[in-house]
Amino acid sequence: MEVTTEVRETRQLLREARQKGCRIGCVPTMGALHAGHLSLVEECRKSVDFVLVTIFVNPTQFGPSEDLERYPRPLAQDLNACEHAQVDAVFTPEISTLYPEGFDTWVECGEISRILEGASRPGHFRGVTTIVAKLLNIVQPDVACFGQKDYQQQTIIRQMVRDLDIPTEIVVCPTLREADGLALSSRNAYLNEQQRASAVALFQALEQAEELLQAGNVSFQEVEEAMIERLKSFEGVDPEYAVIRNPDTLQEPSESLTSVVALIAARLGKTRLIDNRTIPITK
Ligand code: AMP
């Protein structure tokens, strides 16, 4: 497995792989890798010959009061995990490599980046789309894999790739979960024992939304209220939003949709967790 830190050497490596006829896949991450990240690698490998993982804690997607400083960075462990997952290359640049002095060009999606996560975390998606556009430019992969776990993020990235004619196929992969349903996340490491027990609230609220919608005869607003109630019934869970939206636009859903997405953000102490589920609507 090759490990690169510079843009030039990464491009050189990829050029050689392409010359050998390899299709290139890219899995962008912020490190602190868990089985969810590795499932993206596995999915990516199915459609390419050469998988490159990027590990970069992107400062521009963190707000001033967010967890940039304390975000976990277990690089040696991550490289080991990549090696075991038969990753072909890891690109792990310094901040100054991707944001040199004088950097001042940003990629920003419109309305969809200002609602939900974008409303709670102003500027977050501008940071995400800028770094993903840069990584896709550097790697120029045939395929890039993202998790459904970050539902709004993958929606925005697909929009950016469409709008900017970036010649990469975006593959969205299912969310890997703990046995009790908690979505794997690097941020789960922040939870104490009591918070970890309560963190199942998000999954259970999503289960409840699905049950209610499948039973029928319920308004989207009633489902949203039920999700908030379920979240609040767990000790230490402070819901930020729990909504039912159009799965493509993330706007308020119309009654004629055949599926919706339930999206949740909640705080447990200082830790903010998100989760979601797409739910078919049976008429
Ligand atoms: P992150 O390192 O948190 O930026 O995540 C990197 C990629 O892994 C993103 O595309 C995430 O959506 C994806 N991801 C995060 N958690 C999971 C999970 N539990 N299952 C599958 N993919 C995930």
UniProtKB/TrEMBL annotation:
Subunit structure, as described in the record: Homodimer.
Record-linked SUPFAM superfamilies: Nucleotidylyl transferase
Gene Ontology cellular-component terms listed: cytosol
A GO term, aspect molecular function: ATP binding
Job of this protein: Catalyzes the condensation of pantoate with beta-alanine in an ATP-dependent reaction via a pantoyl-adenylate intermediate.
Pathway: Cofactor biosynthesis; (R)-pantothenate biosynthesis; (R)-pantothenate from (R)-pantoate and beta-alanine: step 1/1
Protein name: Pantothenate synthetase
Gene name for this UniProt entry: panC
Entry's EC annotation: 6.3.2.1
Pfam families attached to this UniProt entry: Pantoate_ligase
Catalysis: reaction(s): (R)-pantoate + beta-alanine + ATP = (R)-pantothenate + AMP + diphosphate + H(+)
InterPro entries reported in the protein's UniProt record: Cyt_trans-like, Pantoate_ligase, Pantoate_ligase_C, Rossmann-like_a/b/a_fold
Cross-referenced NCBIfam families: cyt_tran_rel (TIGR00125), panC (TIGR00018)
GO biological process entries: pantothenate biosynthetic process
Compartments it resides in: Cytoplasm
Enzyme superclass (EC): ligase
List of residues binding beta-alanine: Q61
